[in-house]
What we know:
Layout: H1 3-22, H2 33-40, H3 44-57, E1 60-61, E2 70-71, E3 83-87, H4 97-108, E4 112-115, H5 127-135, E5 141-145, H6 149-156, E6 162-165, E7 175-180, H7 182-194, E8 200-203, H8 215-226, H9 243-253, E9 261-264, H10 267-279, E10 289-292, E11 307-310, H11 314-328, E12 336-340, E13 342-344
Parallel strand pairs: 3-4, 3-5, 5-6, 6-7, 7-12, 8-9, 9-10, 10-11
Antiparallel strand pairs: 1-2, 11-13
Amino acid sequence: MSALRLxxxxxxxxxxxxxxxxxxxxxxLMPGRRVLARELGVSxxxxxxxxxxxxxxxxxxAEGAGRRxxxxxxxxxxxxxxxxxxxxxxKRELARFESRNLRYLLQQAGHxxxxxxxxxxxxxxxxxxVAAFVRRQPAAAWVVNAGSREVLEWFSSQPMPAFALFxxxxxxxxxxxxxxxxxxxxxxxxxxxxxxxxxxGMIVHGEWRKPAPGIFPQAFLDELEAQGIPxxxxxxxxxxxxxxxxxxxxxxxxxxxxxxxxxxSEPKLFVAVRDHLAQRGFVAPRDVSLxxxxxxxxxxxxxxxxxxxxxxxxxxxxxxVRWAENVAMGKDDRRQSFTVGKFVDxxxxxxxxxxx
Length: 356
């Protein structure tokens, strides 16, 4: 490569790093040459030259041989610690207090936070479409809400920091937090079996059952087997991911041999399932017992009371804020944390029909 060409590439690399610094992408310490070279697709010597330029400009300060450069705040500027995008599962989550509270607390910590223009549902939970979308969005770090295994695998392979809020992250090198619900799920299944239920199904979105059951649905099937109940597609029924598709799936499920109990993912699905079944004359708990695998404040106003798995959002939100703090300080934080869920028995659970 000619000296002129090398100088041009080095200037381009410096311009890119200068722009990212201006956005607040990194705080505290600059990433190392190897990480930056991989991101920019250039050699480490080119990155070294770009860092030297920024050091000469006063944007960076050398900390000694083998140590990363320190980032200097611009005089008179109010530094933004990180620019963070939150990729929601569904934009309707914007109405939830937990989503608003997370954004507020991250902003209070000095980060520039916004929601991505599209959500995972709009992107079809497709890793390729998500990748193309994310590359067009300027952000130093991402918080991904309820991403599928494939989506989170892509995020975990990228140089930019990402946080898996719920979703299929088990075993992946990505920071994350979620409730540990399987012990509570096991308790719920055992409670249903003790009440005489043997036709028990689980209603979950497609990404948690295809191409193979996720960890949570698989734990449900495993517990049924442990209780001596053979499992199949009846226990994890397929349905098109839409309100109309859910109704058609329920009509098919209840047409010949209705289940006597359902475990339902998400409060919104729980309400939709309960209302549709009630319109067809299936009332909880007389005809079918219903359990939601998440809590919701609306359940406090429901009568009969809703059986559900309870867990607290607060430690999960605090973990996201701590992760952002660590990333802003240049730390490689990929720790996953969990909060314990608890099965709360309620009025939507009762004896199987004919077992009272």
